[in-house]
Amino acid sequence: MDLLRPIIKPYAWGSRHALARLQGREEPSDGPEAELWMGAHPAGPAGLTRDGRTTTLQRVVADAPERELGAACAGRFGGRLPFLLKVLAAEQPLSIQVHPDREQARAGFGARRRGGADHGPYADDWPKPELLYALTSFEVLAGFRSRDEAVAVLEGLGITRLRRVTHILRDNGSGSNGDGAALSDALRTVLEWPRDDRAALVHAVVEASRRLAALPGPHAAAYDAVARMAEHHPGDLGLVASLLLRHQVLEPGTALFVPAGGLHSYIRGVGVELMAGSDNVLRAGLTTKEVDIPELLRITDPAVPVPVVRPEGVAGSERTRVYRCPVEEFALYRVRLGGGPEPVTPPRGPRIALCAEGTALLRGPGGQKLPLGPGGSCFLPDSDRDITAEGDGTLFVAATGLSPGHR
Questions:
Q1: CA distance 237 to 43
Q2: pLDDT tens digit string along 215-250?
Q3: Average pLDDT score over the chain
């Protein structure tokens, strides 16, 4: 059991208060703190001390992947820890974005390397599915609306310019393929809007949204989101594109799975994020970073569901629930401690444990003990078996999504 020293990412959309509260710091930070990273990602590997030596989790795994990950995990993922655990604290909206699947990532990264480019949307050859667990109410845009709903939202604005988009949504073919093609064409039309008319379109959409947000109606919350996002991203076509996406608020304890091809944006809230260890992001808007519209549209699949994940029970435990996703890279376990010792599940493979509130005392064979306070985290290598936890806290355990026989 290795106590981790997480990395804080100070992105501009972060909070001065949320991560400080999580970690029990009395004073807010001097600047925004957006993400707390607990993993072996090369862009921010967590620190630890092993055998009296200060090092990083990335180096520990690289030095002995089979011991740290287990033979099956090391073989399946090329000796890399396949997941990255984060706490995400958003006070401003993140970009509207999408992530590739494994084949797309390999092809895109390979093309970038062959072309000798030193930047672009493909930073590596890994996919980047994500799971977001809401610690607070968390506002998101996740997946596309149905065609009919998208038409209703856009027509509700009363903006003549948008008839180009609603005609596309109404007139393209029917059925799942037709729906996907219509939504994709609608998104393309918005993102490729004529430059000399973009400012006028966005201004009209924001002003109409401000007016409609104050009125009763089924889409008032989505209009309100546009009005609020415009304060941070004035003039951005992503404000218009956001109305094609499903707007929802995750209540604490619920989780959202974002698969490859699922267009999404995290607007506001604090949550535990578990993702494959990749930096591959293609952006559609609400950003000052590079936007590659043709590649984004090629990767985005409007038919891909971005579902809320329901927790499942774990055999032999009353307090542990698992949020499973249809990916091999990760699964998230939540343990509400109280009473006697609770087995830390799963018992094998690489795991990272985070104490999100309260306290937890982890125990291993041979009298090993590791206390975790609020915001504390640790790495449990495959070689650490039969770990239990007790205390009054809530523990999140990140693990692989490999079947038990492959861990």
A1: 30
A2: 999 999 999 999 999 999 999 999 999 999 999 999
A3: 94
Whether the link from the prior residue into 346 is cis, omega within 30° of 0, is yes
Interacting residues of 379 by C-beta distance below 8 A, sequence separation 6+: 1, 2, 4, 46, 48, 57, 60, 350, 351, 352
Does the pLDDT at position 357 exceed 90?
A: yes
Burial of 232 (0-12, 13-18, 19+ CB in 10 A): middle
Provide the pLDDT for residue 115. 77
Q: Which residues contact 67 (CB under 8 A, 6 or more apart)?
A: 381, 382, 383
3-state SS class at 56:
strand
Maximum C-alpha span of the chain: 73
Confidence of residue 120 (pLDDT cuts 50, 70, 90): confident
- pLDDT digit string (tens) for 164-186? 999 999 987 555 567 899 999 99
pTM of the model: 0.94
Residue pair 382/350 in contact by the 8 Å Cβ criterion = yes
Residue 369 in contact with residue 361, Cβ under 8 Å?
yes
CATH superfamily of 312-406: Jelly Rolls (2.60.120.10)
Helix segments in 172-285, DSSP class H: 175-191, 195-213, 220-230, 238-241
Name the pairing type of β-strands 312-313 and 138-144: unpaired
163-171 and 175-191 helices, crossing angle to 10°: 160
Q: Are 282 and 296 in contact (CB under 8 A)?
A: yes
Query: Which are the catalytic amino acids?
Result: 283
Where, residue-wise, is CATH 2.60.120.10 in the chain? Answer: 312-406
Is pLDDT at 123 greater than 60 in this prediction?
yes
- Note the Cα 67 to chain centre separation in Å: 29
121: Cβ contacts below 8 Å, ≥ 6 apart: 108, 280, 281, 282, 283, 290, 292, 295
